[in-house]
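Box 3.1 A note on notation
Throughout this textbook, protein chains are presented in two layers. The first layer is the amino acid sequence; the second is a token string describing backbone geometry. Keep the layers aligned when reading.
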Amino acid sequence: MDANAGRESSRISIIHHFADLEDPRVGPHILHKLMDILVITMCAVIAGCESFLQIAEYGRHKEAWLRNFLELPHGIPSHDTFARVWTVIDPAKFQECFMRWAAALHDATGGKVIAIDGKTLRRSFDRAKGLNPLHLVSAWCCENHISLGQVAVDAKSNEITAIPALLELLTIKGAIVTIDAAGCQRAIATQIRKQEADYVLALKQNQNSLYDDVVAHFKQQEAEGFSRPELSSHEAHEKAHGREEHRTTRVMPVPESLRNRDLWRDLNSLGMVESRRLLAGREESYTRYFISSLEPDAMQLAHAVRSHWSIENSLHWVLDVTFREDDSRIQDRYSVQNLAALRRLAITLLKREPTKQSLVTKRMMTGWDDDYMFQVLMAAGKT
């Protein structure tokens, strides 16, 4: 690798952050460097490859360009080599590298709202081994479109145990953490506050007495015409793509009479969001309730609640539609988790690259244009 290539390689921050990933392979017959396999796979996933066969084919077609920053002492690995390597890389160790890289981006850009939500990889089941589809809980920085990490839900567990495990891996000081009703648990609220962040938790009937009490308090406010001075309100109206939506957010301090209020660490406010949506001449309306450690501020709560949908629209929807994650037939548990992390990494890179194109077009462009692919890889270093 010449001097220019070395300089180019040093500028790709992902290579730096993954450089100390432990190579689980042993023996004298290892032909291909782990970093070469990782970078080829990453580029191939960005460019639209979905199988190990396609990844190897991408590498063969791009070998001359890849040699600008990879050593490739024995050329491009076979698809069987790619498959074998990704089945032995420990997802937990890969996640450590992923999270260090994501944390560096997150710190540099100062994200504020971190949404946590789960997604099932629907075709990752293996009937022969009795494995259900893998379910991953992800953290997403909403303002900056950065995937901060993921944790697999244990086959004998659920999101309630996976969310604390994910939080422990994250640096969330100063952030607002939003979670849907599955994560509305006292232990999770306590952990978020211990990590010096605020929480906004969706409230449903899985918290029976709390839900009933919050609804009752807002009903009382409604009966009084929402006239109490301590009530904070905010309204937003949006019209786009043939859909019109009006949202009213109301936030109140936690009443002294709220049952078991002291069991929720630093519970400071209750929120209600009423939405009216008009689509194709049909109107829908629904009301959602929230609890939060934030001070009563309807505009701030409205922003946090609205931002939470970014993990659905900008991450999960993109994974399903643009990256066809649910169609992946890879079943090995290590490979599934590792490639899922690479897809999330690819989304972050593509969204950070400033060209005004759709993600679908950007992926095509990375396959057509090596300079543009390098530009996408370099997006990780831009603040």
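Residues 189 and 270 are 14 Å apart (CA to CA). The chain is about 45% helix and 20% strand.
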